[in-house]
Amino acid sequence: MSIEYISDKELFHIKTKNSSYIFRLRKGYELEHLYYGERINDTRGIEFLSDDNFLGATLHAIDSEFTEEKLSTDRMLREYPFYGSVDLRCPAFHAEYRDGSRVTKMKYLGHKIFSGKPELDGLPSVYAKSDEAQTLEITMADSFTGLNLIYRYSAFEELDVITRSVTAVNTGNSEITLDKIMSCSVDFDNSDFDFVHLHGEAWRECEIERKPLVNGEVRISSARGASSHLHSPFFALANKNTTEFEGEVFAFSLVYSGNFELGAEVDSLKNTRAYMGINSFDFKWLLESGQSFTTPEAVMVHSSNGFGEMSRTFHNLYRNNLARGKYQNAVRPILINNWEATYFDFNEEKILNLASKAKELGIELLVLDDGWFGKRNDDTLSLGDWYTNTDKLPEGIASLAKKVTEIGIKFGLWFEPEMVSPNSELYRKHPDWCIHIEVREKSLGRNQLVLDLSRKEVCDYIVSSVSDILSCGNISYIKWDMNRNFTEIGSSALPPKRQSEVAHRYILGLYNVLERIKTAFPDVLMEGCASGGGRFDAGMMYYFNQFWTSDNTDAIDRLKIQYGTSMVMPSMFMGAHVSAVPNHQTGRTIPLETRGLCAMCGQFGYELDITQISDDEADEIKNQIELYKNIREVIQFGDLYRLKSPFDGEKTFFEFVSKDKARVCLFYFTHSCAVQCNTEKIKLKGLKPDSAYKCNKQIYSAEFLERFGFDTENLQDNSGKVYLFEIQ
Ligand code: DGJ
Q1: Burial (CB count within 10 angstroms: exposed 0-12, middle 13-18, buried 19+), residue 431
Q2: Residues with a known catalytic role
Q3: Which of 346, 419, 483, when mutated, tests ligand 1's pocket best, judged by the most ligand atoms within 8 Å of its CB?
Q4: Same domain, yes or no, for 536 and 388?
Q5: Which has more confidence, 75 or 725?
């Protein structure tokens, strides 16, 4: 049993392989949080963790329900803090009621524990296969307002993960306006943590920031309509001494692709309250009588062995229990994308030449990027008009797809279906189909507007126009792009009192569209993109089996981008392409070998004009492809050990170990300012105990490689090398 209710103490114990999460009911009213951390096998006495240190004190009022005990929830560790009474710290829940009051007082009504895990209506979520999970649902009720809250916890014992979500149900007769409803909140009885999160920009995705918590609040959010390049919906609280390999980490990842908030508040008693959910800024949700609202899912991971173990837990969970479909466990094809090879300037002959050359080199899929539709020859027009640009492709997309397939490689196609260009037939026909406010000027981003996916007819249009193209056959891959943030947020289809629902309704509409397309075309592999990694989040992983990690293809910059992204995302989802030099983004010239090896640490591909390369380059590319085909299972399905960070010095080491530990790929890179004559012994991780490995004809014991390390050679700046180890 991974979830236990100890009735005499009214105690809930949620267990995974290595962690415990414990809380209890106080006086049939308040859920008091007791513990989250390493697994506890015997909980006798655990209630004494609460020393009732939270007696009311000057300025901290005593809850009316706890008058006798003189307890103040303002000083208590609370399970899910709702606003409106004594606890004046950052609430997880805030709502407004008919009488204008904002006081919520939830009382325990009951709970149930059951096997499995329910799906979340209209939202992506981690799923449980057969007996993988148990779920606890606690129902809380506010008799005065008729609001019920269901707190949902699922424990994945083996995968070592707890997921959470909350459903609000209006069982009363009057409207309730939800202002804030977090997916999870966790109170800790100390504040000795570093706050770790991922921030960035287009071309600089997922930089890792680690800062001590401050007294007061750290809050990270997106109000851009997408999870965004700027911040990822992930954070961790780590002990001060936590490293990649050692120390405690509490990590949180949100299965959501829209506006989010996350943060941590340290109170005057040095307790920390961590939370995560839909961004409450510019959010309101009107709940009419009988209606319910479910939050996105938060995934909680506890690691006692540093950030590396935290990441491997996320990778296993997201590969096995979030990703879906035919490609979930299939090796990803090596692709060539024509974007950096041609940009908008191509015709059928050029694409067929690329396809023929790709076939010759061993590439398995050609993706035709932006510019194949409407009248699109630059980014000023035609988004929304999803029919072939016959000036470039006179015989149409179906014919091109067929010809590429006949060459012997698969064909993929780019779309940006959530957008509309003001200069398009779609916009001329439906000017009100975009997100906008009637009386205001519309701000353009990349010359385009965002379609209003909170409207069913808009979603239907997207499904039918994308489906029409896919139905032509021979399209086995789509790249789904999204290239601007929301502005002037409003929908002409919603009444004034529901305008603050637009951003979340948009995401629900998008999930609905993606689900319909994925169901109708189960054999199509879908790639997500938002100017690179602008929406590379766990919500999207439910639909897309791979992502374009960044528009920055400079191999040395990519080491950091891929390192940061791998904090949560598995390598098999991280599109990584070899591009031309000088690099189009940075102007830097990095050797082809380094570019190839860096891209091999993700989902490997090319993005350059291979019809213009020299014979030597062609030979080198053939060798790269052969090598990747030989090792891609280890990279895509194995365990990642980040042995040395590009953020910390001149060298980067990534180690991939196959699940059976029989094969190991050690990638080694030197970047700026590599110090000559400075060979490095790098200690491997995750090897099979008591075994030996062969590398370059030498035999090493696993113990030797882990204890003393493998001797790497001197490399010049911006170089790369891979060492392959086979178990003996
Ligand atoms: C942005 C993407 O990130 C690029 O890879 C490319 O697809 C362009 N859009 C096309 O407009």
Answers
A1: middle
A2: 481, 551
A3: 483
A4: yes
A5: 725
* pLDDT tens, residue by residue, 16-51: 999 999 999 998 889 999 999 999 999 999 989 886
Instruction: State whether 118 and 256 are in the same domain.
Output: yes
Residue with the two structure tokens 């109708």: 520
Tens digits of residue pLDDT in 263-292: 999 999 999 999 999 999 999 999 999 999
Q: What is the pLDDT of residues 643-685, one digit of tens each?
A: 999 999 889 999 999 999 999 999 999 987 655 555 678 999 9
Q: So what's the pLDDT on residue 473?
A: 85
Nearest CA to ligand 1 atom 10: 370
- 529 CB within 6 A, ligand 1: yes
The structural domain count of the chain equals: 3
Q: For the segment 230-241, what is each residue's pLDDT rounded down to a tens digit?
A: 999 999 999 999
Give all strands (DSSP E) within 97-222, no chain letters. Answer: 107-115, 133-142, 147-156, 161-170, 176-188, 193-199, 207-212, 216-221
Distance 370 CA to ligand 1 centre (A): 7
Same domain, 549 and 477: yes
Establish whether residue 532 lines the binding site of ligand 1, counting it when its CB lies within 6 angstroms of any ligand atom: yes
Q: What is the pTM of this model?
A: 0.97
List the CATH number of the domain containing 520: 3.20.20.70
Q: Please list, residue by residue across 471-495, b when 16 or more beta carbons sit within 10 angstroms of its beta carbon and e when fewer do.
A: ebebbbbbbbbbbbbbbbbbbebbe
Verify whether ligand 1 is closer than 6 Å to residue 416 (CB atom). Answer: no
pLDDT band at 70 (very low <50, low <70, confident <90, very high): confident
| Distance between Cα 406 and ligand 1 center (Å) | 27
Grouping H, G, I as helix, E, B as strand and the rest as coil, residue 631 is helix
Domain containing residue 303: 84-321
Query: Any residues with CB less than 8 A from the CB of 496 and at least 6 apart, and which?
Result: none
